[in-house]
Amino acid sequence: MQSYSIGEPGKPWNDEHKAQWLAGQSVQRSYNDEVLAKLPTDMKGFSVVQYGALPYDEARYPLHAIISEPMSQTKPTVLVTGGVHGYETSGVQGALHFINNEMALYASRFNIVVVPCISPWGYETINRWDPLALDPNRSFYNDSPAPEAAQIMAFLASLDTTFLAHIDLHETTDTDNSEFRPALAAREGTVNHNWNIPDGFYTVADAQKPQLEFQKAVVEAVSHVTHIAPADDKGCLIGEPMQSEGVICYDKKKLHLCGGMTDAPYVTTTEVYPDSPNATPEVCNRAQVAAICGALDFILAANI
């Protein structure tokens, strides 16, 4: 059965085990310096709004979004989210790069909402979970116990707009196998089965509305920045059948994923591989930006 330093094989964690896990976490980087300090202070056509704060330390972890100001009733609205898994660095930094460099280019055609770091505690501690040992990216449902998910869902509902597209920025890393999947199995009292980490970029479409041409456009845009993950010998990526080059599907609402929290018809989750020998942090950040721009350019070209 699984080998992990906390808990007993075959038995789910109790509160004592979760407290033991939390005691082993430590701050490794600064949300204030690496995220908040990069938010624009004055950008024409946009406002920076605080939509909440994490209850673990409200002063340390304010939650911010950048939104079009004003929101137009005649433009489609697109959502970009990063850092729902705080350890996935390029999702956060890629969103910030888009905010500061490319976002204004699309301001005349879209209402834009960008939430660059949904899970700042996870960002600082380089964690998939929150301090409650919950995965925010499995917690997007009514009355969610994860404040990261609950607060952004409430914020988006308050905007009273219909989303056309949602681009959710993620990474698949070697630590998925070395730490996070073993921890999940230990927490649940199940057996861990590692998956093959794809070497390269791929997207996760919504199984209920895959929009393959949209996904292909995102993959094509990213292919100019970094390599696309090839299928394994079973034609899969992370155990899921590949629908087209670099594209797999999950049922996002069923799994309570961030990508399923709106009813947007165009949804993609990006997956960058920062541990590739052919990638660098800058390449990963640029790949996330290319994914966002590729998604928006597809919508514009299709006149959706």
TrEMBL record:
Domain of life: Bacteria
Keywords assigned by UniProt, alphabetized: Carboxypeptidase, Hydrolase, Metal-binding, Protease, Zinc
Entry cofactors: Zn(2+)
Segments forming domain Peptidase M14: 27-304
Regions annotated as coiled coil: none
Pfam hit, one: AstE_AspA_cat
Family: Belongs to the peptidase M14 family.
Protein name: M14 family metallocarboxypeptidase
The species this protein was found in: Salinimonas marina
